[in-house]
Amino acid sequence: MHKDEAKGAAKDIKGSIKEAAGRATGDERLEAEGAADRVEGKVQKGVGALKDAARDVLKN
């Protein structure tokens, strides 16, 4: 697992929590920030997966 995958997963989880908290409290800004964090986390996980795959290909 590449470090970007781990950081992305953490950001995704943080975003989920913020989004849920915003939804529960009616804070649209917090909910939007959480959704943005989730997207950013998913992208970062994808980048990490690509780096991992590229490293595997280059090893062989």
Automatic annotation (TrEMBL):
It comes from the Bacteria. Residues 4-56 form the CsbD-like domain. InterPro entries: CsbD, UPF0337_stress_rsp, YjbJ_sf. SUPFAM superfamilies: Hypothetical protein YjbJ. Pfam families: CsbD. Residues 1-37 are annotated as: Disordered. Belongs to the UPF0337 (CsbD) family. This is CsbD family protein.
